[in-house]
Design brief:
It is a single chain. With 326 residues, the chain is an alpha+beta fold. Helices cover 24% and strands 25% of the residues. It contains four helices and 13 strands. The chain has a six-stranded mixed sheet, with no helix packed on it. A four-stranded mixed sheet has the order 10-11-12-13, with no helix packed on it. A hairpin with a 6-residue loop joins strand 3 and strand 4.
Length: 326
């Protein structure tokens, strides 16, 4: 694109240089009123300048023989604000009335602000790239960066944007479609030999998968989770075992259950765990229930031992007294 623009500029200048000995740069009253080819200049207040902030414009007009058809190119000159002479260039085509829309050209120097859409097959950003514009005091969503593919409709929109929800706090938001059916995803992975491997997947219904492409729960993980601390919220616990009205199962009934089912009462079997997994909070509560029941069995057994000890000591004293009376 840049090569074509340079070639066009060179062609115009070479073509006009044939008459360079007689052509002069002429001051303009209005860019729309020119009906002849030549070199022109305009001041900041000249009507129909490419923009309204420049000090001076120098330009080239190629006009039709009798009408105002043709093309124009204008160079912005801002000696005070751009001492290095960084160029800004606009071009436009004109209809028979001389009216036309100015379009700014992009080049490799300086900063550029563009209006409208730019379509590239490929492009490379060699330095920092910015999306949108910083506006002091603006809250809410900023400029969106949209992503298109083979199909794009109103209900399939993927974009990234910055959202300011206070003066010192903001989000980087990634929008994955407007629905919540779980069929569109934000995926992090890698492509090796044209085979895609997903490592992190976030569906448009809020479900997250790590090592799982299509998560079916709020968080699905395939692999090992390592953490210094895990805190799980619970809505119930097993302290009801120590309530006065709790009926502690007899050891005989527990033995009977174990003999018949090969696992403790209220605890899932090996087959159930393998097929369905376990609820960590529920299982911890059940295991605690068994520990508390076991504690009550121990306390009960301790009391029986004390009672038996007392009975033995009483019997020993009676025997001793009987022997002393002989």
């Amino acid at each position: 694109m840049k090569t074509k623009v340079i070639s066009l500029v060179a062609f115009i200048i070479i073509s006009l240089s044939v008459k360079s000995q007689t052509l002069r740069t002429v001051g303009l009253n209005d860019w729309d009123t020119i009906n002849e080819s030549g070199f022109f200049s305009s001041a900041r207040t000249t009507p129909n300048n490419p923009d309204s902030i420049s000090d001076i414009f120098y330009g080239i007009t190629i006009a039709h023989m009798s009408e105002k058809y043709g093309g124009q190119m204008a160079f912005r000159i801002m000696p005070h604000t751009q001492p290095k002479g960084i160029p800004n260039v606009w071009v436009r085509s004109r209809i028979h009335t001389g009216v036309g829309e100015w379009a700014k050209l992009i080049h490799s120097k300086g900063n550029h602000t563009m209006e409208g859409n730019l379509n590239f097959l490929n492009f490379t950003v060699r330095d920092n790239g910015y999306i949108g514009e910083n506006i002091t005091g603006k809250m809410g969503e900023g400029t969106r960066l949209y992503f298109q593919g083979n199909e794009l409709s109103n209900n399939k929109v993927f974009f990234i944007s910055k959202y300011n929800w206070s003066s010192n706090n903001s989000d980087l938001r990634i929008n994955v479609r407007s629905g919540n059916d779980g069929k569109d995803r934000f995926v992090v992975g890698n492509n090796i030999n044209n085979v895609w491997k997903s490592w992190l997947s976030v569906s448009n219904n809020g479900r997250v998968g790590i090592g799982v492409e299509n998560p079916q729960n709020a968080l699905d993980v395939k692999g090992t989770i390592c953490a210094d601390k895990v805190e799980i919220k619970a809505v119930t616990w097993a302290d009801f075992v120590f309530a006065k009205d709790y009926k502690l199962p007899s050891l005989e009934s527990v033995k009977q259950h174990i003999d018949e089912h090969k696992h403790l009462p209220d605890i899932p079997s090996e087959k159930e765990v393998i097929e369905k997994g376990i609820d960590v909070v529920e299982m911890q509560a059940k295991l605690l229930q068994k520990i508390e029941e076991l504690t009550l069995y121990v306390i009960e057994q301790e009391q029986k031992n004390k009672d038996q000890k007392t009975q033995i000591e009483d019997l020993q004293n009676r025997l001793k007294n009987l022997e002393s009376t002989k």
